[in-house]
Amino acid sequence: MKRTYLGEFEELVLLTVAVLGQGAYGVAITDELDRQTGRAVSISAVHAALHRMEEKGMLSSHMGDATAERGGRRKRLFSVTALGSRTLQEVREQRNRLWDSISPQALPAFGL
Fold first, then answer.
1. pTM of the full predicted structure?
2. Pairwise CA distance, residues 99 & 102, whole Å
3. What is the DSSP letter of 57?
């Protein structure tokens, strides 16, 4: 099976959806990304990434119930699919292999 490409930002968004679990929707994902990474991201960038990953089959979404804090508007909630989970695992394994291949002299500041 050919590996589906996953960019750095998409990886962060996909991981954040997994972190948030059933509470993963646009604003919550944006807030959690900012909190976890210190990286200010726009809601539109998050929505674009969510849409791309849903098209790739890495995420699924459904409309949640209406909530009072949103004036009765419903939220689109996201969850990681089996493909998304496998892709994250592949990315993690690839990164670990690369980290494990670095000699201590290559990154002396890290003291590997």
1. 0.85
2. 6
3. T
Q: Please give the helix or strand (H or E) that residue 47 lies within, else none.
A: helix 43-56
Q: Which of 3, 1, 24, 2 is nearest to 92 (CA)?
A: 3
Closest to 6 (Cα-Cα) out of 78, 89, 102, 97: 89
Burial code of 57-83, b = ≥16 C-beta within 10 A, e = fewer?
Answer: ebbebeeeeeeeeeeeeebebbebbeb
Residues 87 and 4 sit within 8 Å (Cβ to Cβ): yes
Rounded to 10 degrees, the C-alpha dihedral 6/7/13/18 comes to: 30
Q: What is the pLDDT of residues 91-106, one digit of tens each?
A: 999 999 999 998 878 8
